[in-house]
Amino acid sequence: MLLEVTNLNTYYGHSHALQDMSLTVAPGEVVALLGRNGMGKSTTLKSIMGLLKPRSGRVLFDDREITGLAPFKIAKAGIGYVPEERRIFPTLSVLDNLMMGVKGGKIDKSNPEAWTIEKIFEHFPFMKERTHQKGGHLSGGEQQMLTIGRTLMGNPKLLMVDEPTEGLSPIMVKEVRDVLRKISQSGIAILLVEHNLKVAMSVATRVYLMAKARLGFAGTVAELAANPEVRAKYLEV
Amino acid sequence: MDASVAMYVAQGIHGLAYGMVLFLVASGLTLIFGMMGVLNLAHASFFMLSAYFGYQMVAWTGSFWAALLVAPVITAVFGILLERFLLKKVHAFGHMGELILTVGVSLIVLDGVKAVWGTESLPLKMPPVLEGLVQIAGMQYPIYRLFIIAMALVLLGILSLVLFKTRLGMVVRAAVSDAEMVNALGINVPLVFMFVFGVGTWMAGVAGVAIAPILTVFPGLADQMGMDAFIVVVVGGFGSLGGAFLVSIIGGLISSYGVQFLSQYAAVLMFVFMAVALAIKPKGLFGERD
Q: Shortest CB distance from A91 goes to which of B171, B173, B183?
């Protein structure tokens, strides 16, 4: 397994925000984490990333224990995190935003697999014309692309993406979905938190459903598709 | 040359020099706040501490230059120790803990300097080469104040180069808007914090030694500078270096001309300025956050 989360427990003050959460992601696999709002999906990603310190449980990445390490160490281990609120650097140019994702500041030219600015431009052509524009001047959809591009520049083995289609127009939602598919085809594993069931089921092969800070259901996309009661219980409002 | 024009110019030079010193203190304060969300209330105490260290260096070596070089570095080491071993510990308890801690440190510094150096004003002699006046285009200027202005401009230049032309500067600017995100991208943010804290207290230290020959060294030094630097950071916009620079210059000129023309109101002019500026732009002139 690339990522192995076992019985993770996280608290916000006294509130037990994540309860015995377990999940796995295999190399190159796309896994979706679904559930209604406030059920612990983002908390799961933040706990894996070290942005929240889990009180108990284990996170193994590449067979290495990374539980509760500083976020920059977890990023260096190979996990890329694309946060829910996008969080681009508004005062930095598009190019500098991308360069912020480069680990150690130097693009690895010797490795043909490594992400370069040119490759990012192939995936996101709009950035090419706007390299020197401030990140804060981009539209919501463009900012979402920029955060994904920024994280890719760090050559992650696993990309954790939190609600990438939230608040986007239907056209942009499709574009984000296509980008996620392309990233997956390049061999990067994805752990995707999504509220848009259609998007999730069209990119992922396996799903985890969460309810009330816990894991509720785990299975393949086909199993979820064939199981309307599970969908009604965990997803439909 | 008309005597009143000469007086305006002299007062302007005084104001600029004070504004530059103010900027050296406020720039560190605003960067530290921008990155860590901590208003370091001990920042001006480091400024004062450095002035005392400078006084001591001059007493030992007789050299102003040695004081200017060494005292700010020692001050920066104290700043880094505060960040590493104290601020980090209370971070988990939120901003209130950090505020209380820095107030505590400022009280310890205040009583510390009183215990070591006493409460009277100590003179710090400027080097002979910077004494007196220089004649430029028929006007006389105090050399020492021109020196302060030039030194601050050089430091501002270096700081801008690092901040806007290097990777480290880019990381600092990014961390000013979202330090947690920078951390999640694989950059050792705690190390960057330490660096910024060190540079910030170093610049406050340079300011402390630089202003000592003008104001002398006394335990009230931190209060005066602390309040003005705080106003600069608020009005300039939290985390904005450009804002801090502009407002420092305006603030320096306000206090200088204020003493000349409105001496009975001089003490409150800066606050009036702050109130007016914030009424027009509540987030500060260049601010992005509340």
A: B173
d(CA B27, CA B199): 10
CATH number at B271 reads 1.10.3470
The answer to whether the Cα torsion of B256, B257, B258, B263 is positive or negative is: positive
Region of poorest pLDDT, from A170-174, A203-207, A209-213, B265-269: B265-269
A63-106 pLDDT, tens digit each: 999 998 999 999 999 999 999 988 999 999 999 999 999 998 88
- Is residue B121 domain-resident? yes
pTM: 0.88
Rounded Cα distance, A125 and A119, in Å: 10
Which residue ranges of chain B lie beneath pLDDT 70? 1, 287-290
* B177·A71 Cβ contact <8 A: no
B143: tokens are 């050399």
Structural domain for B50, as ranges: 3-280
Q: Does A114 touch chain B (CB under 8 A)?
A: no
Question: What tokens appear for A56 in the block?
Answer: 């108990």
Q: Structural domain tally of chain B? A: 1
Tokens of B245: 């620079």
